[in-house]
């Protein structure tokens, strides 16, 4: 177990929050040891942070491929299982096949994008988390791991550059 | 020679230059205050609200569920459908409601992709219409089926003899496309709702707290969560547009693939899509007006500028509809096929002539109002135009389906369709849509507050010479 505590610094505006991140960097808190929580999405470039890794696109692409295969099975596989001639049409028509294949591909793409968002974000999750409701009121919070012994120093620095509050982060029921 | 090339113009009263503060994006409020306004509008329910809810619920129970029960017990014989018109008002309703459902996707996806800023406060109101519209379309399909308990036969699985549904049939394409659209648009409604549900969770107590806590699925707004959410929303915004186009195109193929006079047309696909957008946009105008005038604090979020933008879209879509309709009308008329001629004569001069003229009037007359910027900014006027257009679009579907089916190549079967129980069920259908909307308006935030704040954060007024110019930057 490392000797550190989690702190949550709450800021009113983006500018002081960005300064706070910069100060934390200077004082040895790395990007991996902090997270920014906000009521609106803020670009990493604005925060001066590396981009968060997301697997949603890859999961969605997998879904699209699976959906396409399912569509191909429905349109070309099922007539193979039980060939039935209708209206003199070919058993394996290409133009008609495109319609079902397209629909299933898109369903797979979007369905998996949705599931990917849930899985990659760990949703749904109803366990206690470090959070303050003020965030959804437009405040910006920096959740960071503070090495023991440096807590007072970091709190003072962050308060000096405009943090409204810097408190030990408590996991609470959302 | 004069130094002034053209006479100068001084704006008269009412034509003054707009104050940028009139725009929502340049009239920001603290986020907490906006949250309170939206939640307050959800929590305030007057006796008028409950009376209206009660009346609608009564209509739904009697006109939809009780009448449906009667239809099931008695069989489809109590409906007006009979040879040669087997597709009556139920199918009119299916096409109509699917059309309405196109509004949400159009406003939310296409305008999001094109970064049209005026969309921000009313995307949710439009997205809700998509989901509830599709619910009504689904109900109408079930009504049309008669033996609704066998509807699972449509699912793609083999029957006892190992025979699968015919995926070469347009009706099967329809089933697959509508279900894809329903599932995807419901997920698309939910995605941008998550941060607002989290906001509602943070500010609620009692059963509402539990309700929002479950729906907010643990969202806090960390960088990773936003990244995943935005990525998923982007995928949806791009992917749902072709699905939207495919749905109504496939609906049109239910008709166009048949070699019937009046139906077999290669322009039906885009014509139906534009018709769907026409009725969808118009329905959004009605709903926005109702939200603005009946819910607290909504005048801050839904301003004349939004009605103006919506009115402009309605104007363009109306013009496009007129263009496609003319295409669809002219070619068979010019071709001179005997059955097409007979059908057109019947539609325009037969006993139901007023439906065709009503359709033309209701779809074209609003153009007279919609071209004018000042008139487009009047919410009630735009709502009336929306209502007129929707009446026109409903009539259009009636002309295309039961009226066209009246005339076929076997004159001895011609018979005019007279709806019976369908009228009651249609009333129930509409009441159910409004009831769902009314209930949802008090359960979920109709304004996407985080998107409004995001927009306000990214807009600034830049001074250029003597003028202040609105400038947008991308902060997300």
> Count the helices of chain B. How many?
18
Task: Indicate the radius of gyration of chain B in whole angstroms.
Answer: 24 Å
Instruction: Give, in order, the helices and strands of chain A.
Output: EHEHHHEEHEE
CATH superfamily membership of chain B: Formate dehydrogenase/DMSO reductase domain
Q: CATH fold name of the largest domain in chain A, please?
A: Alpha-Beta Plaits
Percent helix range of chain B:
55-70%
Distance between the termini of chain B: 54 Å
Estimate the global geometry of chain B from the Cα principal axes. globular
What is the CATH topology classification name of chain B? Formate dehydrogenase/DMSO reductase fold
Number of beta-strand segments of chain B: 2
* CATH architectural category of chain B: Up-down Bundle
Low-confidence stretches of chain A: none
Distance between the termini of chain A: 26 Å
Read across the widest sheet of chain B, the strand sequence of neighbours is 1-2
Oligomerization: heterodimer
Main beta sheet of chain A: 4 strands, antiparallel
CATH class of the largest domain in chain A: Alpha Beta
What overall geometry of chain A do the principal axes of the alpha carbons give? Answer: rod-shaped
Helix content of chain A: 40-55%
Beta strand % of chain B = under 5%
Proportion of residues in extended strands of chain A = 15-25%
């Amino acid at each position: 177990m490392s000797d550190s505590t989690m702190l949550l610094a709450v800021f009113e505006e983006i500018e002081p929050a960005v300064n706070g991140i910069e100060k934390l960097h200077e004082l040895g808190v790395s990007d991996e040891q902090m997270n920014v929580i906000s009521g609106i999405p803020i670009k990493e470039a604005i925060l001066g942070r590396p981009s968060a890794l997301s697997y949603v696109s890859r999961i969605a692409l997998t879904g699209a491929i699976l959906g396409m295969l399912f569509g191909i099975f429905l349109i070309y596989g099922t007539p193979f299982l039980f060939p039935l001639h209708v209206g003199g049409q070919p058993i394996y028509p290409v133009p008609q096949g495109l319609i079902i294949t397209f629909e299933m591909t898109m369903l797979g793409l979007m369905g998996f994008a949705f599931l990917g968002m849930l899985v990659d974000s760990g949703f749904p999750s109803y366990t206690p988390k470090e959070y303050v409701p003020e965030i959804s009121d437009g405040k910006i919070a920096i959740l960071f791991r503070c090495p023991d012994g440096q807590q007072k120093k970091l709190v003072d620095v962050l308060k000096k550059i405009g943090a409204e509050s810097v408190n030990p982060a408590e996991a609470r029921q959302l | 020679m004069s130094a002034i090339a053209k006479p100068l113009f001084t704006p008269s009263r009412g034509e003054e230059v707009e104050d940028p503060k009139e725009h929502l994006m340049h009239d920001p409020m603290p986020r907490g205050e906006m949250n309170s306004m939206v939640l307050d509008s959800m929590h305030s329910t007057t006796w008028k609200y409950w009376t209206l809810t009660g009346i609608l619920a009564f209509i739904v129970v009697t006109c939809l569920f009780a009448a449906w029960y009667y239809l099931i017990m008695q069989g489809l014989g109590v409906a007006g459908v009979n040879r040669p018109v087997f597709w009556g008002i139920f199918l009119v309703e299916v096409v109509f409601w699917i059309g309405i459902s196109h509004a949400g996707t159009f406003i939310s996806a296409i305008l999001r992709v094109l970064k049209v800023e005026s969309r921000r406060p009313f995307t949710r109101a439009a997205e809700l219409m998509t989901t509830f519209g599709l619910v009504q379309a689904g109900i109408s399909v079930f009504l049309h089926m008669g033996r609704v308990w066998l509807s699972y036969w449509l699912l793609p699985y083999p029957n006892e003899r190992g025979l699968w549904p015919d995926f070469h049939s347009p009706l099967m394409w329809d089933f697959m496309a509508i279900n894809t659209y329903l599932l995807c648009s419901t997920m698309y409604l939910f995605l941008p709702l998550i941060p607002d549900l989290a906001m509602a969770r943070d500010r609620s107590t009692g059963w509402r707290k539990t309700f929002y806590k479950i729906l907010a699925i643990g969202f806090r707004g960390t960088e990773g969560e936003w990244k995943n959410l935005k990525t998923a929303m982007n995928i949806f915004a791009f992917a749902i547009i072709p699905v939207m186009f495919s749905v109504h195109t496939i609906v049109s193929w239910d008709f166009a693939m048949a070699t019937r006079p009046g139906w077999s047309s290669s322009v039906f696909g885009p014509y139906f899509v534009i018709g769907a957008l026409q009725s969808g946009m118009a329905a959004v105008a009605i709903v926005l007006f109702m939200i603005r005038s009946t819910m607290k604090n909504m005048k801050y979020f839904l301003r004349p500028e939004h009605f103006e933008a919506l009115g402009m879209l309605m104007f363009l879509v109306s013009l496009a509809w007129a263009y496609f309709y003319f295409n669809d009308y002219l070619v068979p008329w010019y071709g001179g096929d005997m059955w097409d001629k007979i059908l057109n004569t019947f539609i325009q001069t037969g006993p139901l002539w007023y439906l065709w003229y009503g359709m033309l009037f209701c779809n074209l007359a609003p153009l007279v109002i919609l071209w004018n910027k000042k008139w487009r900014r009047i919410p009630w006027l735009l709502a009336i135009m929306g209502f007129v257009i929707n009446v026109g679009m409903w009539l259009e579907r009636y002309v295309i389906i039961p009226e066209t089916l009246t005339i076929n190549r076997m004159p001895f079967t011609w018979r005019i369709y007279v709806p019976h129980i369908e009228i009651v069920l249609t009333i129930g259908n509409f009441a159910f849509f409004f009831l769902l909307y009314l209930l949802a308006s008090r359960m979920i935030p109709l304004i996407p507050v985080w998107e409004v704040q995001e927009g306000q954060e990214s807009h600034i007024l830049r001074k250029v010479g003597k003028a202040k110019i609105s400038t947008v930057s991308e902060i997300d």
